[in-house]
Amino acid sequence: MSLDIGTIRHEVIPCPLKVRSNPGAFSITPETSIEADGASLEVGEYLAGVLHIQKGNKSTSGGRIVLSLDSARTQLGAEGYTLSITPSAVEIRASHRAGLFYACQTLLQLLPNGRTLACAEIEDRPRFRWRGVMLDVARHFFSKEFIKRTIDLLAMYKMNRLHLHLTDAQAWRLEIKKYPLLTRPLDRKAFPAMWEGHYSQEDIREIVSYAGARQVMVVPEIEFPGHSDAVMAAYPELLCPTHHTSHEGGGNHKEYCTGSEKVFDFVDGVFSEVVTLFDAPFIHIGGDEYMGTSWEKCPDCRRRIEVEGLDREDTRELETLFSKCLGSHKKYLLYRYMMRRIARMVVDRNRIPILWDDLSWQGDYPEKSMVVQWHYQGLFDYANKATTVCNPATQAALAGHDVIVASATHLYFDYFDGGRLIKRLYEFEPEPEDIGGNSEQHFAGLQACLWEHPQKKVDGMLFPRLLAVAETGWTDKSLRTWDDFSTRLESHLPRLDRLGVRYAHTEEIATNGLTEQWKFSASLFKDWLINHCMTGAGTYEVRVEFLQGKATISGALWTDDGHEKPLEPFKSKADGSKIYRFDILDFKPDGLYSVRLIFEGDTKAECQVKCTVRFLSGTTK
Ligand SMILES: [Zn+2]
């Protein structure tokens, strides 16, 4: 499985820019010396440790591995490197430590089992500067050891960003000394996830330092203004004073009051500790899926609109846009005010604010902020109750913001396991075609996001498909071909086995159909991926049965790669149960298919619904 001499075949992921194979081989023996000094010493020691080579070997008989840093070699960028393997020496050169580190990763991949390296000349550099993964450590706590192990796997595949989603409605995981109650909620029944654990400031320093040595930057996310129920359980004074009377049901509805200065004091207190813990130049401030449920009735929020003159600007366009979806554009004005002010607080601390793309409706992101695109054109936006009309990544880049592409169509990893639809993910091009001129430089890269899964499921959700993301982020677009990647991917599965990674296996189609049950009160928005039961073109049936309670089905459609199509009602029963059918004329094996259902129930009574989707017949109309 190693490099074939004389050809350019290799199994390195991500694929390097240039690989030239030469005859001969370099053998690593106990006498091999590793030569590194000054700034390259740390990487040299890392390599010696991984290869079990004694430091300080001076013998020339055992061959030399030489690491040298030359800050003038800038043509391959800070992360690029050259790696030269000859029978007598391995020479690694880079302008920065990151380049040396990545050369070592390539070298280690060329040595999966043995101690022999085929001779080669390699020149390499990444396509994108941001090659990331987001882990949702709020919904479920992941241990420090698990995070460190994930960092090792990211580093192996030259991924360089770990975004930690540290706060959400269910829990706040980051110790803040000024606000000790954040990590000690009072109500065990209401916040069971919170009792799983949190990161002490010492834990965070350890993770950040471990990641830094592996060229992975840890980016913290502290979410505002929504997804904040856990904060409000600890510090209810941050809610609107009118909140309790205008509360509209449970789950993800408690948001910071936009009118209270106490809130901004809190943000300041949190940031003052965050900047001492994380060395990343970024702080992600959330900003997704706000509801503004209590803002309009809150005297403080209303005063904010007046005092700041938020509606003094020309807001006619906003009124047209938001009267339909949010019920009023005032919520949007308050949301924008809050995100702008929090972003400015980040900038004042010499960090760059990052936001989810939910402000994309007007493209008016805060100054100097970076945007993570997750909405895609055609997606129904739950919070705004309308369809996203254009690609927010393009919009943000055109407005001069750096963009990280995390499109939910391909890079949200929570919908199905990591063994499915890898080809579709591999062939996803993160940079939209419609972008031109200078806007291209704003595409920082891409990021896979894994939401809502417990630690024990993470391996199976991330792997092996994360390798496709690693290659898209690193490898020149012209070198990416599925046939070549899929062959190399095969050879990495035994490597992942040896590392104890419990990756998902290739997909099996559920020919009997898929069934899921969901419980909710108030309302439920379900985007249900149905690829696992699809075999080809034909007629499919979707059965919706109420097992408990009753709700109105206010939306029913199916999507074909993000294109929404109505579900045709076939039969209805008196208890509200429904059967729908839809036809697929042109089946795409690598397409993404989902059924989207929106239920409006009773805020008090719990409702349980069972959904089944199955293939009826292959005769197409
Ligand atoms: Zn308020």
Question: Explain this structure to me?
Answer:
The protein has about 625 residues and is an alpha/beta fold. Helices cover about 25% and strands about 25% of the residues. The chain has 15 helices and 25 strands. The strands form five sheets. It has an eight-stranded parallel β-barrel, surrounded by five helices. α3 runs parallel beside α4 (about 200-215). The protein is globular. The two termini are about 50 Å apart. The model is unreliable at about 1-5 and about 245-250 (pLDDT under 50). Zinc ion (ZN) binds near residues 240, 300 and 301.
Bound molecules: zinc ion
The amount of beta strand, in percent, is: 25-35%
CA-CA gap between termini: 49 Å
Low confidence ranges: 1-7, 245-250
SS-derived structural category: alpha/beta
How is this structure best summarized?
With 621 residues, the protein is α/β, with parallel strands linked by helices. It is built from 15 helices and 25 strands. Zinc ion is lined by residues 240, 257-259, 295, 298, 300-301.
Features of the shown structure:
single chain, 621 residues, alpha/beta, 8-stranded parallel β-barrel, 25 strands, disordered N terminus, binds zinc ion
How is the topology of this model organized?
Blueprint: E1 18-27, E2 33-35, H1 41-51, E3 64-69, E4 81-85, E5 89-94, H2 97-109, E6 116-124, E7 130-136, H3 144-156, E8 161-165, H4 201-213, E9 217-224, H5 229-234, H6 243-246, H7 261-277, E10 282-286, H8 299-308, H9 316-325, H10 330-348, E11 352-356, E12 370-373, E13 380-381, E14 386-387, H11 392-398, E15 403-405, H12 422-426, E16 443-450, H13 455-462, H14 466-474, H15 482-498, E17 514-520, E18 523-529, E19 538-548, E20 552-560, E21 563-566, E22 568-572, E23 578-584, E24 593-600, E25 607-617
Bound molecules: zinc ion (ZN).
